[in-house]
Design goal:
Blueprint lengths: L1 H15 L10 E2 L4 E3 L5 E3 L8 E6 L4 H5 L1 H7 L4 E7 L5 H15 L5 E4 L1 H14 L9 E5 L4 E6 L6 H15 L1
Parallel strand pairs: 4-5, 5-6
Antiparallel strand pairs: 1-8, 2-3, 4-7, 7-8
Helix pairs in contact: 1-5
C-alpha cells in the first residue's frame, strides 16, 4: 500500500508541474513501452493498424473491474487494448493479477503492462492535451487506425449516458 501511495504522489506531483492546455481535436499517444501478458517487451505501436479502444486501468481500481463486462461487449465493434498500471508491482505479480481478473471476468482483450516510466509518459500526454491535472483511472482513449486519439472517455462505462456517447464515437470511427 505504501508503494502505491508513493507512486500516486509521484504521478500527481509530475502532473502538477506540467502545462495545462485545452484538449486538441486529436493527438498521438506516446509509443508506450511495456510488457505483454507473457512477459515479453512490447510497444503500443505494435497494435496500430486498426481502430483501438485503449483503456488505462489497474487491479486496485473497482470501477475498472466493473467495466470489464462493458468492454467485453464493445469487443464486437472495436479492438480493445488494456494499458495496465503495474502500480509498483514486479512483472510476475502484475501478470498474475491480470490473469486472475481475466479468468474471473471472462475478459479476452490483450494488455500492455505499463511500468511507472511508461505510465508517467501516458500521464504527461494526457495532461498536455486536456485541462485535467492528472490521468484518472479508468480512462479510455479512442484511437484511429493511424493511432490518432480522437476521443477521451474519462468516466467508467457504467454511466449509461457516457457509454452511449462512446458507442456513437466508435460507430462513427468504423464508417
Amino acid at each position: 500500500m505504501l508503494k502505491r501511495r508513493r507512486f500516486l504522489e509521484g504521478v500527481v506531483a509530475s502532473a502538477l508541474c506540467l502545462p495545462r492546455k485545452a484538449y486538441a481535436n486529436s493527438f498521438r499517444l506516446p509509443d508506450l513501452e511495456g510488457f505483454n501478458e507473457d512477459g515479453k517487451a512490447t510497444r503500443l505501436s505494435e497494435y496500430y493498424g486498426n481502430p483501438i479502444l485503449a483503456h488505462a486501468w489497474g487491479a486496485y481500481c473497482p470501477p475498472c473491474i466493473a467495466d470489464i463486462p462493458f468492454l467485453n461487449n464493445l469487443e464486437q465493434y472495436i479492438r480493445v487494448l488494456g494499458l495496465y498500471d503495474m502500480a509498483g508491482d514486479d512483472l510476475n505479480t502484475a501478470r498474475k493479477k491480470i490473469k486472475e481478473i481475466k479468468e474471473k471476468q471472462k475478459h479476452h482483450a490483450p494488455n500492455i503492462l505499463l511500468p511507472t516510466v511508461s505510465l508517467l509518459q501516458l500521464n504527461r500526454a494526457y495532461v498536455e492535451q486536456t485541462k485535467e491535472r492528472f490521468l484518472a483511472i479508468p480512462t479510455y482513449f479512442l484511437l484511429t487506425k493511424d493511432a490518432e486519439c480522437i476521443y477521451i472517455h474519462k468516466t467508467n462505462l457504467t454511466v449509461e449516458k457516457e457509454t452511449k456517447k462512446l458507442q456513437r464515437k466508435i460507430t462513427k470511427l468504423q464508417k
